[in-house]
TrEMBL record, chains A, B:
Signal sequence region: none
UniProt-listed Pfam families: 4HBT_3 (PF13622), 4HBT_3C (PF20789)
InterPro entries in the cross-refs: ACOT8-like_C, Acyl-CoA_hotdog, HotDog_dom_sf, TesB_ACOT8-like_N
Domain Acyl-CoA thioesterase-like C-terminal positions: 129-264
Protein name: Thioesterase family protein
Originating organism: Gordonia caeni
Span of domain Acyl-CoA thioesterase-like N-terminal HotDog: 26-107
Length: 269, 269
């Protein structure tokens, strides 16, 4: 039996090289599909390309308009292939309209000096933290086991927009680049936490940097990830938020991805 | 007399809507032009477009290949205009080859609730910090007055990749969006600081979020900005670094922009 995530990111390729995808009801959001599943589908599609070089390193997607339920087309092409990296641009078409644009850099992992400067957040053991459910109108969240260490949305406003949570696909699924991509967009808008309520808000532009090597993904397997996010500045209808995805807590934890987004919001009426 | 920055970001528009620009020797870098001046030129060009909506909010540029000294073409187009924001994509062509790609979101600043969570770094007064000069092969840096509070490149390795500096254009120039764009790419690669030496390194992908309103830019005028940057993870040939550009220090400082980039590097031989 296939995993619902694999069903959702499925693409087929036409003779013209255009990828065809379809929204999956299990990953719907308040308006249109969850952005993370759209981004994961793009990463997955590029990985299928016969000329792809290496693994994803940097990925930016701009959500210009909501995707409607149904079929959509991904137009992706290689702009330039260098010795160790490859530049892609893409856009999503639906009903003769461009609804998303973006770019991706894929490339090779070469052995070099390494160092990670930030520390993972401290967190109690996964099994001691209760999973929480989001309301039904956030369908996609049902496909994640989410255990908030801080910053769960419990209805109270917070002076600090930080959320830290243990997260993995539900049912369990071994981590790969599409799954990691999706999880980097799984933080709910930080403005909800500051106000303690759902509000009109949506990601405009998302950038993820993949630090994980294929070996690090394999070592992660189905274990919970430790994810943390925080906003910088809110104001004038927008805010940005930054996130980190760690393999776990403690001194040996690996920083698998960093992620940034600009979000649109409206004041609650 | 025109400012060298304005000379460098000058564009002309052809009948076909293509923008024409030329590299400026005052902003050359080790290989090709300083990425910040390229990005600033793109922001400036989009601002000239008769159909532009509002001001820059999010900007991503991918440096796929070095730009050679001389003329280059910017192909920029509006993908979608929403009620309060507008999505652009662009690429740079030179000698029939695509050397950069990217996307920009412009939009309106609407009055909403606001809050800034991070604090600016602490810093001594501008006039008590000595400006430093970079070597001549980093020509562009000569157009900035740079006063490092921490993390100046003095030849010693550091365990912490943080640099904090007072910076402004030299000669003085009132801050605008192109100037702010350029300054978000003015942090030298963090790997230099960790190793205490210049190394082969170059930005692959840069994303800047503009928080500054036109009024905040006007209030800044020619005053020094307080800029800070730090890396997250180095390894396997790449690292990412994050930066913040503040209007100054202290409790009333305004966070004008946040910025992120993925950088390629080679170990020193």
């Amino acid at each position: 039996m296939s995993h619902v995530f694999d069903e959702a990111i499925t693409v087929s390729v036409g003779d013209d090289g255009v990828f065809h995808a379809t929204t999956h009801p299990a990953y719907s959001n308040m308006v249109g599909p969850f952005g993370g599943i759209t981004a994961a589908t793009i990463v997955h599609a590029i990985q299928q390309h016969p000329d792809v070089l290496g693994e994803p390193l940097a990925f930016t997607v701009n959500y210009a308009a909501p995707i409607a339920d149904g079929d959509w087309e991904l137009h992706a092409r290689i702009v330039r292939t260098n010795r160790t990296n490859q530049h892609w641009i893409f856009h999503i078409e639906q009903n003769d309209s461009t609804v998303s644009t973006g770019s991706a850099v894929f490339g090779l992992h070469r052995p070099t000096w390494g160092s990670t400067e930030p520390q993972p957040p401290t967190a109690p053991a996964v099994e001691t933290v209760e999973p929480v459910e989001f309301p039904e109108f956030i369908a996609w969240a049902g496909n994640y086991d989410k255990r908030f260490v801080v910053g769960g949305l419990d209805g109270s406003a917070s002076e600090d927009s930080t959320s830290t949570l243990w997260i993995r696909d539900r049912p369990e699924r071994a981590l790969d680049y599409p799954a990691l991509m999706s999880i980097t967009d799984s933080f709910y808008p930080r403005v909800f936490l500051r106000h303690g309520t759902y509000m009109a808000a949506g990601t405009i532009s998302l950038t993820t940097y993949f630090h994980a090597t294929p070996d690090e993904l394999a070592a992660q397997g189905v274990d919970h990830l430790l994810a943390t996010a925080r906003a910088a500045r809110f104001g004038n209808g927008h805010f940005d938020q930054d996130g980190q995805i760690w393999s776990g807590d403690g001194p040996d934890a690996v920083l698998l991805a960093t992620t940034h987004q600009l979000v649109y919001f409206k004041d609650p009426q």
